[in-house]
Amino acid sequence: MTSTLAKIPPVIDVKEFGLVKEIKKDIVKIDGLKSCLNMELVSFSSGGFGMVMGFNESETLALVISPSVEVKVGDKVYSRKVPLTIAVGMRFVGRIVNALSEPLDGKGAIEPDDMYPVFKVAPGVLERDPVTATMETGILSIDSMFPVGKGQRELILGDKLTGKTSIGTDAILNQKGKNVICIYCCVGKPQVSLEKVIKLLRDLEALEYTIVVAATATAPTGARYLAPYTAATLAEYFMHHGRDVLVVFDDLTKHAWGYRELSLLLERSPGRDAYPGDVFYLHSQLMERAGRLKKDLGGGTATYLPIVELTQGDMTAYIPSNIVSMTDGQLVLNTSSFGEGFRPALDAGLSVSRIGSKVQSKAMKKLSGMLRLEYIQYKELAQMSKVSSTRSEEVTEKLAHGQALTQLLIQKNNLPRSTEEEIVLLYCLREGLLDKLEGDQLKTFIDTVFAFLTKKHPELIKELAARRELSPDIVSGLQDALEDFMVRGGYKGIFFEQQKAAKDINKVLKDMSGIIAGRRDMDATQKQAMLDALKALEISAADLAKMTRKELFERIKTIETTIKLPPEQIIKK
């Protein structure tokens, strides 16, 4: 009975309204609306919508949020008594929308599954679960040294044109086939930059699982202000339905600029760098919406990659330092490294991840544990070696290892690596297989080794992808597979150290053969027996190519022990 009565329309529809008395760009002053609430939705008689941004005893301030709507002085403004809400749902995947989740791609209207409030209180501690899974970006330097967990907030910082957007797009490209919904939020960037990102996602078939929320530099200030919250709201829908979501905010510096512009129009007192006093809350309420929900609340995750632009690398500026304090780590891009060709140009000293290393796979954690420290030490050693005229053998070896590590960390844009490939490459580094290679030979090795293993040893790669640990059987298989690759690929230079040891052994055996041949206290039969015994101990090139590293070192150890024996015992041996 009650539900039936609720459907009967009222005879008189009572609405509170006010009148527009002043317009300043996207901000209107309204006379009336005495009972409005902050962030409440209002409608204009001209057909557009707005949102209450503040009020006092005499007037209400509202932001015009409908694009291409002309509001005039004297227009009526009606109170809606509801917060600003937008449409959300599965049908938004693969589409390009504006800050109000309205389509921009010309593919027609989007049928929503639900309506969510744009400004929502972030889940509390008791509504969250710990972060336990890794969000692979496909970028070796990040996944190994600064890994990101599903539900983490990892800030990307850097000057203009240092590859910040590329890190975000590569992370999106790497989610293909991993059941992750991606959202790319463009705030204040030129239209041509947005079109490049969309073309990239479309060409590489990443737009199929991505939503693009666009508020370019030409969009109204209100749209630039709302766009990140719209992206977060769309992500929350999937979180509540048990899905993993990756959101890239590009970028929050321009978002802060837009809010500063709005605040000046709202006649709020400027503070540091002319930003309003609540600019910290502006971003903190956004960042807190990332995380992993408990299963009874959906069990999904939202991983945030906010981007902030620096000026001459100044991380202590107001907006960067604010957002650093809100996130779980930062990836700092170095301009000088970018200019030297080291890309992604991560600063290993300033970058950090406070959660991701806890959820790395066993194999990745074992191989990358000391990687960051090794790279930092190499950079320092390389600087010192420039002013030193002499180098010890130990320093030379460390520099060779550091150069191999540097080449391994260099990665082209739009070519994310799978976790299995990252593990294989790091294993090669740990085994010292890259240290003796230089230039094009090193690059070719890095570029081709995984493709060879995938083609010739597919079962090994499948097992590595499934288990992601370096168990004895996987390590044995990797060693044999890598030996196969090196022999077939002509990488005999890989065995420099082993070859040197084998040559030294063979030289000693040859010298001993000469001594024995000149002895006069032995008859011909004894001499021939001893010479045959020494000949059998030699290591031929064919033997070297067939042996695994373990077999080779055991053989050398046996020979070293044997040739120290007296001639009579060599014959017995």
Descriptive account of the structure:
With 573 residues, this protein is an alpha/beta fold. Helix content is 43%, strand content 16%. The protein has 21 helices and 17 strands. α14 packs across α15. It starts with a helix and ends with a helix.
Short account of what is shown:
By secondary structure, the chain is an alpha/beta fold. Helix content is 43%, strand content 16%. The chain contains 21 helices and 17 strands.
| Class per helix and strand makeup | alpha/beta
Q: Report the count of strand segments.
A: 17
Please give the count of helices.
21
Report the sheet with the most strands, covering strand number, pairing sense and barrel closure. 9 strands, mixed
Termini separation (Å)?
103 Å
Morphology call: elongated
Radius of gyration: 33 Å
Could you tell me the mean pLDDT? 88
> What are the low-pLDDT stretches, counting only 5+ consecutive residues below 50?
1-6
Beta percentage is 15-25%
| Helix fraction bin | 40-55%
Give the key terms:
573 residues; alpha/beta; nine-stranded mixed beta sheet; six-stranded antiparallel beta barrel; 21 helices; 17 strands; 43% helix; 16% strand; elongated; disordered N terminus
